[in-house]
Amino acid sequence: MAAVDWFAHAEVAQPAPATRRPARRTAQRQRPAGTVRSQRRPAQRRVRAHIVWMILFALLLAGVVAVNVAVLRAHVAVSQLDQQREKLEARNQALQSELSAAGSAPRIERAARRLGLVQASAANTSYLNMTSGGR
Fold first, then answer.
1. Please, how many CA atoms are within 13 Å of residue 120, restricted to the half-sphere of its CB?
2. Quick count: other Cβ atoms within 10 Å of Cβ 109?
3. What span, in angstroms and rounded, lies between the C-alpha atoms of 81 and 29?
4. SS3 13
5. How far apart are CA 104 and CA 113, in angstroms?
6. Three-state DSSP class for 37?
7. What are phi and psi of 123, to 5 degrees?
8. Pair 116, 110: CB distance under 8 Å
9. What are the backbone angles phi and psi of residue 86, rounded to the nearest 5°?
10. Mind listing the pLDDT tens digit for each residue in 28-53?
11. What is the DSSP string of 75-114?
12. CA torsion through residues 35, 40, 45, 46, sign
């Protein structure tokens, strides 16, 4: 660079005035003359939009995982309750069998014989009418 360039007059150092272009008749909004739109803003908006969409997608996936975990926990609880119900039903069956065996006729006959009782013959059996009207 020459020394002359360093000491140039102010008119030379200023940029040339912008020439006005004829106005376009389009549906675009007219900007006031002299404003320059930054190229960084749309890029930042696009990056921000992508970040927002990624965050929303991550939240959606987290929600799906949370629902799946809740369903699995409920399934485990239902399975445990089914197993408990099956055990209780088996125990009830065993108790019913014991009750049936305790009240069976052969068992009662053996207990009566031990006490010295004998079964009455059919010829010696008579029935009483317990209704109030007849004797």
1. 6
2. 13
3. 68
4. helix
5. 15
6. coil
7. -70, -30
8. no
9. -65, -40
10. 555 556 555 555 555 566 678 889 99
11. HHHHHHHHHHHHHHHHHHHHHHHHHHHHT-HHHHHHHHHH
12. positive
Q: Which residue has the tokens 């609880």?
A: 77
- Contact between 135 and 129 under an 8 Å Cβ cutoff? The reply is yes
> Which tokens sit at 39?
């190229």
Which residues of the chain fall below pLDDT 50?
Answer: none
Q: What is the largest CA-CA distance in the chain?
A: 153
Contacts of 20 (CB under 8 A, 6+ apart): 33
- pLDDT score of 29: 58
State the Cα–Cα distance between residues 49 and 41, nearest whole angstrom.
12
